[in-house]
Write a structure and sequence with these properties.
The complex is a heterodimer of chains A (about 350) and B (about 475). Chain A is about 75% helix and about 0% strand. Chain A contains 13 helices and 2 strands, in the order H-H-H-H-H-H-H-H-H-H-H-E-E-H-H. In chain A, strands 1-2 form a two-stranded antiparallel sheet. Chain A is globular. The two termini of chain B are about 45 Å apart. By secondary structure, chain B is mostly helical. Classes of the chains: A mainly alpha (about 350), B mainly alpha (about 475). At the A-B interface, helix 3, helix 4, helix 5, helix 6 and helix 12 of A face helix 2, helix 3, strand 2 and helix 15 of B.
Amino acid sequence: MELTTVWFSLIAVLWIGYFVLEGFDFGVGMLLPVLAKDDTERRVLINTIGPVWDGNEVWLLVAGGATFAAFPEWYATLFSGFYLPLLLILVALIVRGLAFEYRAKRDDARWRARWDAAIIIGSFVPALLWGVAFANILRGVPIDADLEYVGGFFNLLNPYALLGGLTTLSLFLTHGAVFISLKTDGRIRHQARELAARVGVVAAVITVVFLGWTQISTGSIASAVAFTAAALALVGGLVAILGGREGWAFLGTFVAIGLGVAGLFLALFPDVMPSTLSDGVGLTTTNAAATAYTLKIMTVVAVIFTPLVLAYQAWTYWVFRRRISVDHIPAQPPTPATSAR
Amino acid sequence: MDMLDIVRWQFGITTVYHFLFVPISIGLTAMVAGYETAWVRTRNPRWLRLTRFFGKLLLINFAIGVVTGIVQEFQFGMNWSDYSRFVGDVFGAPLAIEGLLAFFLESTFLGLWIFGWDRLPAKLHAATMWIVHLGTLFSAYFILAANSFMQNPVGFEYNPATGRAEMTDFAAVMFNKVQLVTFPHTVLAAYMTAAAFVVGVAFWSLRRAENDEDRSMYRSAVRTGAAVVLVTGLAVAVTGDLQGKIMTEVQPMKMAAAEALYDTEAPADFSVFTIGTPDGRTEKFAIKLPGVLSYLATGTTDGEVRGINDLREEYVATYGTDPGAAYYSEGDYTPVIPVTYWSFRLMIGLGLLAAAVAAWVLMATRKGRTPGGRLLTWSVLALPLMPLLANSFGWIFTEMGRQPWAVFGLMTTAQATSPSVSATEAMISLITLTLVYAVLAVVELKLLFTYIHRGADPIRTDDLPPEQPDGDVDRPLAFAY
């Protein structure tokens, strides 16, 4: 296999890792107002992802960095082209990340309510926009002969891309609900299970339409296989959650998102960012790539360190494997908020 | 403002802001890991209290460093796409490796530390903080290697067919001679910054402590912190001196700009303070140290230091007329002199001042004394700001001193921006991010002051972390958001 193909695959793996992991923590964040009735329940939900959300987010940073190193032209065109959506995602990730850390730092209902809003909106915006961004990449965008995006902001808001956004949004909601059912106990667990089944049906319909549309417009045989397997995994996950098999259900949504993203990358290959302009030049794994030397160095580093990262991240999930219920939530530490004011 | 001004302001604001949190995170992870190791070794509750107290302050600080770091990585592609295309083959690699080696390590093990008090054996728990610290060091190494390439591009070849700089020697990029002095200088300054923070906080708490036990605990934090400030302060000066000599070799214009030295001199004096015309070309009053600039630049007190005018002629001969000359209005290849001149002095001055205050604190707290003099008190309370600001001025100096280049000798900053981004879009981004940073700064400071004011929590005997986790799944979490 050529090194450019290796790196296209590795970047696909990084995005898969990002979506299967942060997908559920976006879901948990969005479900905060739906599944929690009071502050203790909100804390139950937040603490299911407390130790791991930041590690999940690093998959995005590494995907970005790897794109910079392995396909500099792709990184440059994509990040400067999708400027305003990326800015929105950045702001969302900033306030969301701080919210987890700062929310419990003051015993003040208004303070917590604000950070709750930051978590909810900060999870919703990227969950929607990542789908919009990926759909636009697959659909092709106006890129001129200098490899510059020339489409502006509103070009990104087309029906196919919005459907892509709804796909990631609904999938992450489902994935999050299943995760909550797997990681909590008591009332929340049961409500999350019911919700996962209901949202999951909607997500399945949207996902099948979006993947079908993608397959018809840019698909290959390989992507068809991945999409079919993804749809089957999602249906399997739904069946499992209806039967109360939370672990299998989580495996189902996990695999469905992973294979769905894999299918999108397979449908894209060997393009990385096709152009819709007749006189434009689309980006491919060849014309966007770094030199063979850089790719070789990066390959050595990735081969050594990726297994290590996977091992210690898996270990973290093992350390924090137990279910959390309202009984596990310690009293809010007596913060000095009132005395300091 | 045009697009270039806007994206430069965004880069400057984001980077300086981000780097207020980074050095404290680098240094404080080591200090907290040290306190926790002392706790595990001695089981003296004092160390556990300090671990928890400074651990909380660390987390409040770390969070902003993390989230602003995302902007740091994305803005190269967003605002500087021509730069990214040009150097991505060289510059992208350390960034990607930083993510893979450092960010995963930091985020995962910090999560383990925060939530793992009752899940991990005590020694392993302390080890997780050391691993976080290791992650911050990896991060510093790779990002500084990337920056050093911008100061002194090595290990690459220009490919005229693609118009890109292409990496030919990864080891040369990783062990760039600029990097080899920049890394220790920056990391030592980070230790100094965090230790100054500890001294300021612990001194404030010491003055307010109500019993002997608390006083003794805070005093040990003040004294160990002050010792670290003093030792690292001297080491920062030594590494900074080495850095100056290498800078003179690879970027002589930056050294000339640091002194506003227009004409080549041997020996060259260092002015501590100058009042001149606003453009820095004519001096009206100055306090000078004879031969010191020669020493900083060459290591001898009578060495020749080349001036801006000579260097400008040489650069024009080498690189042609500066394409950014009109933009900078300083003339060919000349940085903005008042900025480089003052940032260089403020960096050195604030660093030395911090070391002096630390020495004074060590003297004044000898033999169990708790000093109460006003001047000392205010100096110690201001101490955390000194290295913090010195860091900022150091970065402002080194980045502004490289102008008009983005990558020295290869690409100017004016050539580096994103052609597809409009000034309006860039302005939306600048305003949005600046407002977000401002709000977060207020929130962060309020939280920090709240927790500093509260002091280290007393230890309850039923609240000690276990040496071995007992696996009880019904007990409430030791820590929860």
